[in-house]
Write a structure and sequence with these properties.
Layout: E1 7-8, E2 10-12, E3 19-21, E4 28-29, E5 35-37, E6 40-42, H1 44-57, H2 65-83, H3 89-95, H4 100-110
Antiparallel strand pairs: 1-4, 2-3, 5-6
Helix pairs in contact: 1-2, 2-4, 3-4
The chain binds zinc ion.
């Protein structure tokens, strides 16, 4: 865990307002997959959304809805592939509501290594 050791009795996402806390108000470390960056504190869902928004922001003026949707999808796939490249394509596809082939081509595009053939369970 690399949460630089900080704990709080409650973490709140700056974007969606979702909170994470422990019953009883015990101090907890930043939840897994949350990020505490210069831009703020964000939950996983918002990190994904921010990746998508950043990509759409770079779309040329007047880009069609289709192009924006494609950029968004590619950004989310890229975010997930980069976040944890060891997850099998099928798992990432499910998380992104996308297809296994789309995940595979995203890996190729980003030069990310293939997931290990053997599924590794975490936790
Ligand atoms: Zn959030």
């Amino acid at each position: 865990m690399s949460t630089n050791g900080s704990t709080a009795s409650q973490w709140q996402c700056d974007r969606c307002g979702m909170t994470a806390s422990q019953q009883g108000g015990e101090k907890i470390a930043l939840p897994a997959n949350w990020v505490n960056s210069d831009g703020g504190l964000f939950c996983l869902a918002c990190r994904r959304e921010r990746a998508a928004e950043a990509a759409i922001d770079e779309a040329p003026e007047g880009s069609s809805h289709k192009i924006r949707a494609d950029l968004r999808r590619d950004a989310i796939l890229g975010f997930e592939v980069t976040r944890d490249p060891e997850r099998p394509n099928a798992v990432i596809a499910q998380a992104c509501k996308s297809s296994v082939s789309a995940v595979a081509s995203t890996r190729t595009r980003l030069g990310a290594p293939e997931a290990p053939a053997r599924t590794r369970r975490r936790g």
